[in-house]
Amino acid sequence: MTATAPETTRALDLDPDAQDLLFREARTANAFTGEPVGDERVRAIYELVRWGPTAMNGQPMRLVAVRSPEARARLLPHLAEGNRAKTASAPLTFVVAADTDFHEHLPAVFPHAAGARDAMAANPGREAMARFNAAIQLGYLIVGIRAAGLAAGPMAGFDAEGIRREFLDGTPLVPIAVVNVGHPGPDAWFPRNPRLAFEQAVAIV
Amino acid sequence: MTATAPETTRALDLDPDAQDLLFREARTANAFTGEPVGDERVRAIYELVRWGPTAMNGQPMRLVAVRSPEARARLLPHLAEGNRAKTASAPLTFVVAADTDFHEHLPAVFPHAAGARDAMAANPGREAMARFNAAIQLGYLIVGIRAAGLAAGPMAGFDAEGIRREFLDGTPLVPIAVVNVGHPGPDAWFPRNPRLAFEQAVAIV
């Protein structure tokens, strides 16, 4: 599907098939089959990617897995028009959110730093930190969806405040992305866009 | 090293050894051996993770791979004191940056959207978009470092403006993270901190 990259393949420990599954052959899907995504699969994805590192082990990413017909009907009006048809075709859609009160879990998840919760409670940069680390976890999540043999369809075109009110009202969670999940349907792929060359993105000093 | 998770393992297509390599057994290293990380490895990591999706295929992440003794000496004073010894022990450290002018590449990387560059040039949310998508790519990068059989040591404790002036002055790049890369040295691991349970982080509706 993509140009093979034998040098890359050989320089990495990860099995070449896994490289393809997670990165080189994986694609953003724009249509899905009706095949459902079960609870066990959702749990397995989360239980894999939760091990990825975050600052202070804060793990601010939260997921609302929108799957029932009722919940899906509530989600669609808050998406950009161009994102509705593909989302309607997906068997499951993650609303990915950042928990701006992630510090409440620090005594449990970062137990050696006694004052971390209180210091973070008073930190005006806490929401930015929650969003930044949840975005890193979104990277892990997309890899994890692919690890499950499923296609991910991450989207930035949505009404964040509308989704917040619809699904997260009364919580400290703020939506940062919406990601369709499922098996790719007919005409799921747009032509693959080029990536920046090594020399355009990396300098060794 | 971690509790095995047979249900997770079985519910995913990715080989269990690869699940361990990338997530379950991979750890944030806090000390490194002197074994160098060569150009070929740096290139292979980038050429794998560049395929991960970003909004408008904007790919705002840029990397400065700090490796020479001179460059390392320039980096250390800008790190939080607690991050200096481990960074001094690492054979290579990525300064991970977001290109706030990523839109200049849109005609090449998002060619079907004719007006994208100009629209983004006038978009006051462009820097936030660059930082958000570079953070997603940072998630891919950490996975890619582990795919190379190396340990990653991501850090948030640094003087961003100091690093910007030292390594990125006169460019539209802003640092978002610093990540040590290498083979784990003696006493590289802190005790592993717990992760949030599925029920704490995910709701299915």
Automatic annotation (TrEMBL), chains A, B:
CDD domains membership: RutE-like
UniProt domain Nitroreductase: residue ranges: 26-183
Spans through the membrane: none
A Pfam family per the record: Nitroreductase
Signal peptide region: none
EC top class named in words: oxidoreductase
EC number(s) given by UniProt: 1.1.1.-
SUPFAM superfamilies for the chain: FMN-dependent nitroreductase-like
Key words of the record: Flavoprotein, FMN, NADP, Oxidoreductase
The protein's name: 3-hydroxypropanoate dehydrogenase
Natural source organism: Actinomadura namibiensis
